[in-house]
Amino acid sequence: MKNLWARTELCNIAISALFVEFGTGMLMVLIPLYIRVLPAVTVTSLAIKSALVFSVFGLFAAASYPVMGRLSDRLDSRKPFVLAGFAGFAVLAVACAEVDTFEQLLIVRALQGIMVGVMVPAILAMLTNISTQDSRGQSIGIYSTIRSIGPAAGPAAGGIVAGALGYGAGFYACAALGLISLFLVNRIVKETHESRTQETRDGGTDRTSNGELKLFVYATFTTMLAIMIVATLLPVYEVQMNASVGGLGVSLSAYFSARLLFQTPIGILSDRIGKRRMVAAGLFITAVMLLGMAHVTSVIQLFALMFVAGITSAAVNVPALASGADLASPGMIGQQMSLFPMASAIGMVIGPLLGGLFATQFGFASPFYICAGLMVAVGVLIIRQR
Prior knowledge:
Strand content: under 5%
Order of helices and strands: HHHHHHHHHHHHHH
Number of helices: 14
Shape: globular
Radius of gyration: 20 Å
CATH architecture of the largest domain: Up-down Bundle
Largest sheet: none
CATH superfamily of the largest domain: MFS general substrate transporter like domains
Distance between the termini: 34 Å
Helix content: over 70%
């Protein structure tokens, strides 16, 4: 009965978040394209300003995650944070449609980053509270799969709506999706409270478990770093391989599609064979895929490597997040689980800088080797932890 309740609550949370995630996916294509119609934006400054709106979002989200996670721990209340985040998403989507200058858009993006920082740690804490250690991989996998449908389909929907009805309609559609999530959370998602008798680990000190948790956070960081390096260097692939934009887009989609398809099976498998082993194996294989991406000569090769890397990155992220939930200390679940989305946000900021700078200064392959080396190092440390 308890397992049935937990699975129902898990699906309620995931389905509620799906609509906001769909809106977030729409914003990924709407925001950079919308910059073009704002005053005083030239073609030469377009790329810089597009990078700024994403970097500002990531920076403010990364700064907000631990603060909001700690606050939700102190209050031992998660649902109000989720409601506030979804409401903020809806309001700020409308604000995007009303801005007149790039500077105003930048402020809105910073506020959107803060709203993400409000809701994500609370959601992760709720998932931790309703799941058990022996099924956490499966729970995280199911949640990740459902919520990933939004980012996967959102960009296409955003482009279609904006193309047919204009950017304003696209932003208002995002706001409507936010309101749907808000309504669903209010109606079908129940508040969770931390049990002070939560299962604890056998042996080990708080310092040891905290260090182990950070290793899984570093693993999450490296997978985001890797995909951002690849995305940043797509124009170089285009020149070196004389590849089409469509072919490169399909290759990038292969990565996200593979992650979407394999997150739940990998979560179930990690519960059976061990989360730590799964994370380490995912890191090692992803590192090999990265080295291959540094030397591909055709789009077909890149597509194949990206698809496999999508599977192996899921093998890192899902069990890493589940392991973080296992290791989180009572009274600090929101704060410690917030480290995972914070690591991803930092990877989104550092990845383009690392890829662009090192590829320019030290050769195209250098950022791939650096990231692969980091993955191997973290994987070795995770294996040696116990």
